[in-house]
């Protein structure tokens, strides 16, 4: 044992990283000597494993649950007072279950919810199982609120928060060839035009408002030169000359901007 305590003859050598090691020998119960403590821990490891398996299908690895339960067992041994006449198994069970629930409350949620919401969510799970057996169907929000003594708004909040208990990976999929990440989006062809727009914007700003309007009508609205001429009140020939001059001005401005880029 740690702290210079002598191990009883014939006792099994404690492995590094065991539950007793992790809890620490500094908290050894004053009511038990080292040999009694070791014997009580070893004799009840099966109880810790059994209680850990109760929480197996809640998204946490069994190894983690067993570790939490084993450390809780050691805490139970160190807090246990045999002079009180309390059965150790009952005392340890309450402590281990409490530690497991605390583990899920503090570390089991992918999106952290308040303690009130977490406890109500767990209570709703028990209430739902009971009401399904009684009613033969899934209970309504009003029935859950009545069973738990909470408001309907609080029940809805807890149910919604429960959706964030375990986050799903975007790489997870029913088919290995079709991960969720592949179906979340598609290639945007407009990415290639981002740089062009960044260059074109300042260049357009150098043109007079009338030329900007003519370019917009021609290349955005898709009007013909005749339609633009009628809208602006000039001849088609003049529109053609304005378009040519404006495009040449844009090419020159953009060329200068590209030349000045590092």
* Overall form: elongated
Biggest beta sheet summary: none
Number of domains: 3
**Percent of sequence in beta strands:** under 5%
Output the CATH class name of the largest domain.
Answer: Mainly Alpha
Low-confidence stretches: 1-26
CATH architecture of the largest domain: Up-down Bundle
| Record field, number of beta strands | 0
Radius of gyration, rounded? Answer: 36 Å
Structural class per helix/strand content? mainly alpha
The SSE order reads HHHHHHHHHHHHH
User: In DSSP terms, counting alpha (H) and pi (I) runs of 4 or more, how many helices?
Assistant: 13
The helical percent reads 55-70%
CATH T-level topology of the largest domain:
Four Helix Bundle (Hemerythrin (Met), subunit A)
The overall average pLDDT, rounded, is 79
Q: How far is it from the N-terminal to the C-terminal residue, by CA?
A: 68 Å
Folded structure, characterized:
This protein is mostly helical and 262 residues long. The protein has 3 domains: 2-107, Up-down Bundle (Four Helix Bundle (Hemerythrin (Met), subunit A)); 115-167, Arc Repressor Mutant, subunit A, CATH 1.10.10.10; 191-259, Orthogonal Bundle (Arc Repressor Mutant, subunit A), CATH 1.10.10.10. The chain has helices spanning 19-23, 34-43, 45-53, 62-79, 88-107, 115-135, 141-148, 152-162, 180-183, 194-205, 209-219, 225-232, 236-259.
């Amino acid at each position: 044992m740690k702290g210079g305590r002598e191990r009883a003859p014939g006792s099994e050598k404690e492995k590094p990283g065991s539950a007793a090691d992790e809890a620490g020998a500094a908290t050894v119960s004053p009511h038990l000597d080292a040999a009694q403590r070791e014997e009580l821990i070893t004799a009840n490891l099966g109880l810790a494993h059994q209680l850990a398996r109760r929480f197996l299908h809640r998204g946490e690895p069994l190894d983690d649950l067993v570790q939490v339960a084993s450390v809780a067992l050691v805490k139970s041994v160190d807090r246990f007072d045999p002079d009180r006449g309390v059965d150790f198994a009952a005392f340890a069970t309450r402590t281990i279950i409490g530690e497991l629930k605390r583990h899920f409350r503090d570390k089991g949620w992918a999106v952290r919810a308040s303690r009130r919401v977490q406890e109500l969510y767990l209570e709703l799970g028990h209430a739902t199982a009971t009401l399904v057996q009684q009613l033969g169907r899934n209970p309504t929000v009003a029935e859950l609120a009545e069973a738990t003594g909470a408001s309907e708004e609080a029940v809805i909040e807890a149910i919604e928060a429960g959706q964030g208990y375990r986050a799903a990976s975007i790489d997870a999929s029913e088919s290995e060839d079709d991960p969720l990440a592949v179906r979340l989006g598609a290639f945007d062809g407009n990415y290639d035009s981002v740089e062009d727009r960044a260059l074109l914007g300042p260049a357009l700003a150098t043109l007079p408002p009338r030329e900007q309007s003519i370019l917009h009508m021609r290349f955005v609205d898709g009007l013909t030169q005749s339609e633009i001429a009628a809208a602006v009140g000039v001849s088609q020939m003049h529109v053609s000359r304005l378009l040519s001059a404006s495009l040449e001005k844009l090419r020159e401005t953009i060329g200068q901007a590209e030349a000045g880029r590092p």
